[in-house]
Design brief:
The protein is mainly β and about 325 residues long. The protein is built from 1 helix and 24 strands. About 5% of the residues lie in helices and about 40% in strands.
Length: about 325
């Protein structure tokens, strides 16, 4: 007969485990929150107005914003001065249904055109170049793509929202491989529940905003899972604690090698290291049943721009030195 462990032994073990879990699952901020510098925009369809901004990207000293229900991309300088419009509503070449997350690479603007089930490519002046994809569940097809990232060789990585997968395509749109099982949701490692956006780091690692699983998953260049984070064990447990999420809608990797995540229903942006260590969080909590932090982009100078969905505006944030 084995002897039962004495309570005096059990208690320190439980306490030690609780402390370790607390540090891992409820981390303290390592940096101060960012400060709101300014915001601009209001509801409408005129120049500089928005009807549900859903994506944002930065190139040089310009900010590109997906104006979803107006079917266009609006471009501003860093002070919020309106410069130009890209695209117009429709289903034809260069027209936009519901533009979502944006990517800028090699002086090209890539738009996840959600309702038209394709990726559209423009130059930064707004001239349409070409589209990639069509509606479907086959290789190279999409069902409501939410975001796109572009590798140095031109390969595209697409968050295929309603197909519950991420696809890698060549620059010409040819299918290379995918992560996730087409049409199947799942919360175990390597599966997705409506992925919303993707980003690549300098080493070619793929970061996936696994939207309704409330987590980030990271895959190496060989396709293997490297890590995941978001709540205990990153198993689709949402919450408002540091490092937890309540629907991830956008992800960007800043020039300093940190990961910025739009945590939509928590109305904030969270900042992490590339390994998933929580650093800080910031946002303006709204009054009433509205939600704000839909998309995030980081400029080379460290400013962070946020697409504020329900308040129809763009916010500019600065790090606190």
């Amino acid at each position: 007969m084995t002897r039962r462990m004495k309570p005096l032994v059990i208690f320190p073990l439980v306490l030690c485990f609780s402390l370790l879990a607390s540090c891992a699952w409820f981390p303290e901020a390592k940096e101060p929150p960012y400060a709101l510098v300014k915001s601009w925009g209001e509801k409408g369809s005129g120049p500089g107005q928005f009807d549900e901004p859903t994506g944002i990207a930065v190139a040089g000293e310009e900010v590109f914003v997906s104006d979803a229900r107006n079917g266009r991309i609006l471009v501003f300088d860093f002070d919020g001065n309106y410069r130009r419009q890209i695209g117009q509503p429709g289903e034809g070449p260069g027209q936009l249904g519901r533009p979502m997350n944006l990517e800028i690479s090699a002086d090209r603007l890539y738009v996840a055109d959600y309702w038209n089930d394709r990726i559209l490519i423009y130059d930064l002046s707004g001239a349409f170049q070409r589209g990639i994809g069509e509606r479907g569940a086959g290789p190279g097809q999409f069902k409501e793509p939410g975001g796109v990232a572009v590798a140095g060789n031109g390969d595209l990585f697409v968050a295929d929202f309603n197909n519950h997968r991420v696809q890698q395509l060549s620059s010409g749109g040819e299918f290379i491989r995918q992560w996730g099982v087409t049409g199947e949701t799942g919360f175990l490692a390597g599966k997705f529940n409506y992925p919303t956006d993707v980003a690549l780091d300098a080493e070619g690692n793929l970061y996936v905003a696994d939207g309704y699983n409330d987590r980030i998953q990271v895959f190496g260049p060989d396709g293997a899972l490297l890590r995941k984070w978001g709540g205990p064990f990153a198993l689709n447990l949402n919450g408002s604690f540091n490092g937890w999420f309540a629907t991830v809608t956008s992800i960007d990797i800043g020039p300093g090698g940190n990961v910025f995540v739009a945590d939509f229903y928590n109305d904030r942006v969270q900042k992490f290291t590339l390994q998933g260590r929580f650093l800080t969080a910031f946002g303006v909590k709204p009054a009433g049943p509205v939600h704000t932090a839909m998309a995030v982009a980081v400029a080379d100078d460290g400013h962070v721009f946020v697409a504020d969905f329900d308040r129809n505006r763009v916010e500019k944030w600065a790090p606190v030195r």
